[in-house]
Amino acid sequence: MKSTRLFCILSFIGELVPIYPVYVLLFQSNGLSLGQISLLLAIWGIPVVLFEVPSGILADNWSRKRMLTLGYLLKASCYILWFFSKGFALYALGFILWGISSAFCSGAFEGLLFDTLKKSGREGEFDRIYGRTLFFAGTGQAVSMFTGGFLSSLLGMYNVILISLAKGAVYRMCAGREARR
Fold it and tell me: Contact at 8 Å (CB) between 68 and 108?
């Protein structure tokens, strides 16, 4: 039971990213046009589609935990690029890294949850528990949407990028705790 709670916490923390509701404003404040911003958002989807199946195969045959770690590092790299970027190219590279990160983490997280449940003979509960993790992920997104704008106006968008980056470190620590089980 403790283990499934940790997966719910990881889902919440994983989507608790206060830069979500304001990154378009960040891009716009650095001179990007609406067309460039739309292109950036489309760029994110390309690596997700290209890497979803290969990353799932890699996670199955190599290590789900390592795929999650790589996914975190790629998403952290995205935020670091955005922190230093003032133009389209680094923002685009950040979205590419984020897209690869999303592909790496999606199947690896589900597979790790299933493996964890299977170890304790609870694999039949996967759908219910996975649904619960999706609820917590959505709650993390909602909290991000409510707090991101406020934090940006209070602290500035670049500090919100740093908060999003620091959140990733907390996520990795919690995920590392699960990996040691």
Answer: yes
